[in-house]
Design goal:
The mean pLDDT is 88. Helix 1 crosses helix 3 and helix 2 packs antiparallel against helix 3. The chain is mainly alpha-helical.
Length: 85
Amino acid sequence: MDDLLKFLAARIMDDHHAYAYVAGTIGGEALLDSHLPMLDLTEQLVRDYRAMDASDPRSAGLAHALRVLAQSYAEHPDYHPRWRR
């Protein structure tokens, strides 16, 4: 699971950099309808999972949610199809 968490954290960072570039080039108003809030929420879920004890009954559900969220990056060369389970 650690490799999936690292993958998601890297994609979130990439997306934040891309949005910062767009904001600097076009202006912040271009980002009003962006998925920046979703990136922030996904980042929070990654942090929550890392802090969660493996015995926590919520960990399996959160792991599943993170695998589903990672599917939005399935075309990325670092995405592993085994995460799709």
